[in-house]
Design a protein that fits this description.
The structure holds two protein chains of two kinds. By secondary structure, chain A is α+β, with helices and mostly antiparallel strands. Chain A has one domain (2-144): Aldehyde Oxidoreductase, domain 3 (Alpha-Beta Complex), CATH 3.90.1170. Chain A has four helices and eight strands, in the order E-H-E-E-H-E-E-E-H-E-E-H. Chain A has helices spanning 12-16, 51-68, 99-116, 136-141; strands at 2-6, 26-33, 42-49, 73-79, 81-83, 88-96, 119-125, 129-131. In chain A, 30% of the residues are buried. The radius of gyration of chain B is 12 Å and the shape is globular. Chain B has a five-stranded mixed sheet with strand order 2-1-5-3-4. Chain B has one domain: Ubiquitin-like (UB roll), CATH 3.10.20. Chain B is of the alpha+beta class. The chains are: A alpha+beta, B alpha+beta. The A-B interface holds A 32, 48, 50, 52-53, 56-57, 78, 89-90, 110, 113-122, 131-134, 139 and B 4, 6-8, 54, 57-59, 71, 73, 75-81.
């Protein structure tokens, strides 16, 4: 299991080389990307985090996923700082013997990262800077686990 | 103890962290004490349903005891992912 919190970009292909090992028949990856807004004028997304807490919160979520599903490996990378539209913000990867565990664990990780990892996004446009509000459906999504 | 603020809570209060000497026994009492200080605190803590709290980097709730806490952090609901 690896959990990385960083401001630098990551390389999905490099991260996946050898991931899980040859006993695993399935790897699921999810990559989050900075999406432009509906007006198309997003300049950047500023991502703030709580340095002391971020690593431990992400590790706890990854550990929980490993306990609930049969996983050969788990990787979580989450960036912070100023990211431009189209840049990769974060990724999760899960490896398992069969695909069901990998898919479910990846969804679980994403649902918990949304609402339980101490990150806050601020949308910067040419003439505004607004904190992104948490969505009720993201909180509600935790209920299914 | 250290009191930390993140995102718009940090912006409304105007600083990321500060040392606070308090006799408060719960998070709610600490909040009440901070609100009495100055208007910027009153504004930041006006709606507790819009806030989350962590004690020593663990999420908790406003009824939680703070005796022995080294660090209390206030922030809006998280938007990771």
């Amino acid at each position: 299991m690896r959990v990385l919190v960083q401001d630098s970009p990551f390389d999905l292909a490099a991260e996946m080389t050898g991931f899980g090992g040859d006993g695993m028949g399935a790897i699921v990856t999810f990559t989050g990307v900075v999406r432009n807004n509906d007006r198309g004028d997003l300049v950047a997304m500023d991502i703030e985090h709580y340095p002391g807490m971020t690593q431990s919160a992400l590790t706890r979520i990854a550990t929980e996923a490993s306990a609930r599903w049969s996983l050969g490996d788990v990787l979580v990378i989450h960036r912070h700082g100023r990211l431009e539209p189209g840049e990769q913000i974060m990724m999760v990867a899960t490896a398992s013997r069969h695909r069901k565990d990998a898919f479910e664990a990846a969804e679980f990780l994403m649902d918990y990262l949304k609402s339980r990892a101490p990150f806050w996004k601020k949308e910067i446009t040419r003439d505004s800077a607004d904190w992104v509000a948490a969505r009720d459906e993201d909180e509600a999504a935790l209920g299914r686990w | 103890m250290d009191v930390l603020y993140f995102a718009w809570v940090r912006e409304r209060i105007g600083l990321p962290r500060e040392k606070v000497e308090t006799d408060a026994t719960t998070v709610a009492e600490l909040v009440a004490e901070l609100r009495r200080r100055e208007e910027r605190y009153e504004v930041a803590f006006a709606d507790l349903s819009a806030l989350r709290v962590a004690i020593d980097q663990e999420l908790t709730d406003f009824d939680a005891p703070i005796s022995g806490a080294r660090e209390v952090a206030f922030f809006p609901p998280m938007t990771g992912g």
